[in-house]
Each structure stands twice: as structure tokens, then as C-alpha cells.
Amino acid sequence: MSLLIALAAGVAAAQPLVIAHRGASGDRPEHTLAAYELAIDQGADFIEPDLVPTKDGVLVARHENEISGTTNVADRPEFARRKATKTIDGQEITGWFTEDFTLAELNTLRAKERIPQLRSTAYDGQYQVPTLKEVIALVKRKEKAAGRRIGLYPETKHPSYFAGLKLAMEKPLVAELHAAGYRKASDPVFIQSFEIDNLRALKGMTKLRLVQLIGDLNSGPPDRSGIGYATMVTAPGLKGIAAYASGVGPEKSAVIPRGADGKLAAPTALVKDAHAAGLVVHPYTFRQENYFLAADFKKGGDPRAHGDLAGEVCAFLKAGVDGVFSDNPGLAVAAVKSCKP
């Protein structure tokens, strides 16, 4: 039974999924067609486009609507007056925002590495900001070339904020996915969000699978001030999530926290309780740089140096997770294949 057939049948998959976090973002600027294509070539099961709208309502792939950290917009004098300060999900942010640019204007920008302190900038300036339509077209083309299904794992970013700007994402997202042939729960698509009402609205619009993202346990969904993520990952909270979602995407410390020494501690009950509620668990984010790794898996003292990513991934696989988000999908694929229960 193939991986995606197993998922469609609602049974345990042959092996955990590798979800390319923003594409192969450890090797190319994130959320570019080059990053997604490399991730597919490295064997990722799914690619993850985070989505935000443009001024003219086109869904594009950016981790945030503030784009000075991932494009060259700050170097473009013709856009200097677009710099603004906005409050998004309760946080004041200054920069340039996708909702203030048409798609034609965004197409003139070029992507750059988001964390140059840790990663190469060799590919800065080479790639455009892609639309969701372009990402889907890439996936379809690569499926034909590779002879395998490739999944899409889009995230709606700040959906309640954009709804307040009359740029709600739910209908355009569902329309694009349905038009591309993704309509059934068995299709290789998960739609994820940190918000609740966004997912509940999507539940009424599509049969595609939904995933509740879980952020820092000291915080909560931006659209629900009275609910905390810590409550949502309890056994009753997970049963509540199962009423509208097929899975949870927790920050990885909610699955295995780190001790005072920075090493991985014992796993929490999250995986067991999520599985009991019928939910899959896809934690984020697994990265190869020492800066991001638990102390058990660092190699040397240089934060840019590459540690034992496979070892960290394997620890989570042994804790029972159903997939992992990784900036280095090729290494994560190898870890899934080599990890012994």
C-alpha cells in the first residue's frame, strides 16, 4: 500500500511524512519555486506554501505579509513610501506588506535569504515571489516527471487580520485548490492555520484535510483570546480539535521538551492523546544548523555548523509522530528511512 493510498484509507502510513518547510529553505531562499522544486527532487512528500494576499487579492507564497526580510523591497526607492507600521495579531510591525502591493508590483521584487547570519546568500536576487497558482503548476509538472504524487500543505497566514481588510483567504484558497482537482479528503492536501475560526470556516467549504497549528504553549490562537494552546493540547482539547481538523501541527517542544541542559527530555502525552482523538501529529521545525538543534545533536560550538539533524528527527519518530516539517527535506527523508524504532 502506497503512502498516499494509506492516508486516503485512513490507516497508518507506511512511513512518516516529510513536509518541506517553505520548500528546501535550508538551501534556497524560502517560498520560491526553486526551493519547492529542490525539495521535491530531494524526496519530500509534501511542500508547504505559506499564503498571504496581495492588494488585488492574489494568494502568494510568503511566510509573512511583511516582506523586507525575504525580498529586496527595502532597496527599491520607488517603494520607500510604502513602508508602514501595522498591528498584526496584537504585535506592532514596521516594514512593507503584501496587501499594499499589486501582484504586478510584487513580481518586480526578488527573494533573499531570511537568516543570512546562518545560511548562504548565494541565491539572493535570483527568484520571484510565486503565486499559489504557480506553486500548483510546479507540483503538477514535477508529479509527471517523477511519477509520484506530491502533496501540498498550504498555511493561511493571519486570516482574521486579512478578513478585516476585506481580503479573506478562505474562498480564494478553496477555489484554487478545487479548480486544480484537489477536492477530496483522500487528495494529497492539508490546509493548516494557527487560528480556529479560519479552520472551522474551511470545514464548511471543503472536504480537504485541515490541521490545527499549535504555537508556543504560553500563547494561543490570535482569533480566540480566551483559549490557550496549552489547553488545546490536553486530551479534552485535542478531542475538540478533532471536531473540525484531521491533525495538529505543534511546535516540536510540545512533543518533546528540552531540559535545563538543552537536551531532549521525555516526550509529553501529546502524541498519544492526539492519536486517541484520531488526529495525526506533524511537528515543526527540524533544521540542521546547531543554532536550532537540541544540545544532544549539536556538533561543535559554531551556531552555523551542521549538527545531527537525523538524530533529532529520529527521536521524534520514536515518539510516534506521523510526519515532520523540515527546512532540509533531503536529510529528513534519509532520517525517516534509516531510523530504527
Note down, in words, how this protein is organized:
This protein has about 350 residues and is an alpha/beta fold. It has a single domain (about 5-65, about 130-340), classed as TIM Barrel, CATH 3.20.20. It has helices spanning about 5-10, 35-40, 105, 130-145, 160-165, 170-180, 195-205, 230, 235-240, 270-275, 310-320, 330-340, and strands at about 15-20, 45-50, 50-55, 60, 85-90, 90-95, 150, 155, 190-195, 210-215, 245-250, 280, 325. Strands 7-2-1-13 form a four-stranded parallel β-sheet. α2 (about 35-40) runs parallel beside α4 (about 130-145) and α11 (about 310-320) crosses α12 (about 330-340).
Strand arrangement across the biggest beta sheet: 7-2-1-13
Give the C-level CATH assignment: Alpha Beta
- Give the distance, in angstroms, between the N- and C-terminal Cα atoms: 20 Å
Q: Which strand-content bin applies to the residues? A: 5-15%
Helical/strand content category:
alpha/beta
User: Please, what is the CATH homologous superfamily?
Assistant: Phosphatidylinositol (PI) phosphodiesterase
* Number of separate domains: 1
Spans of at least 5 consecutive residues whose pLDDT stays below 50 are 1-13
Give the overall form.
globular
